[in-house]
Write a structure and sequence with these properties.
alpha/beta, 14 helices, two-stranded parallel ribbon, about 325 residues, Pyrimidine Nucleoside Phosphorylase, Chain A, domain 2, 2 domains
Length: about 325
Amino acid sequence: MDNISKILSANSKDAEIKFLFNHLLSDDITLEEQIRILEIINHNGINKRYLSLMAAVVLERSSKLNIESTDFIDTCGTGGSKKNIFNCSTLSAFVVASCGLKVLKHGNKASTGKAGSADFLERAGVNLNASQEVLKKAYEALGIAFLFAPLFHSSLRFVANARKAIKEKTIFNVLGPLVHPAAPQYQVVGSSDIDICRDMIEVLLEKKVSRAMVVCAFDSIDEITVTGPSQIYELKNKKITEWVFEPKDYGFSTSVLEEIQTNSIEEAHLFGLEVLNGKRGAGLDMVAINAGAALYIGAKVKSLSEGIEHAKREILSGRALLKLNTYAQYTKS
């Protein structure tokens, strides 16, 4: 067993692993060593300990967005389903903000799919490189801002080449929801890997998030989906419960995957606009469900059912689309 394997073993101390992770995110390490670390993590399996310690190291090296109150929600997911699903969590964020719950959406461009949250928003006219001053003003005025991950996590540039060399998912593909630059009280996290959902919700509990959901569809979509059941891990009152969301239990018919897929940034943008214009039945239903979950987790409503109905009304009113367009203009000021 080499030294890296020893440090990443179950018998090592947290401080030793954190030291190695700090070394990983530096320019004082060879590409071969970085690849070795990431491959061993994958071989051992991404677990709560690795997620917690890597998130702590990344946050220690990140820029922070200082907001007086952490009474807001994030809908950042992991992505990675490779199913080219439309930007559900991004659209949901603007619906949620339109309903009056404050949102700081953390996100990035696509790494495995066709269009990530940042790709969609950039196509919608949002200035991804808006200053922190502009972001704070937008958040105060509109109740929402988008935090473009590369502006806050510059240390991740050190592992870019290693991640490309491995050509498979690494721990960094699932870390985004755990390294929010402003420490939200509430989170709805989508994961495309059901095996890490329990670990992720436990890390959120450890981070003292007040309420959260980690969700994964049975078909590995990183959202609560309308294509079938979704596994839900819910954090409330410092306790974690597990349950399954069935679309039919909330009055939705089951849709086919093709109804929620897009094949380019342009298609994703047009799909999103149609949803916020009250069209695209399956897409609208899915946004209403996920926005409803965020309203429920953020204590804006008392139940998921109430949240879904509130979100659907808000979409059909046109106010969520107006919120998106207004935010895009605000970021250019």
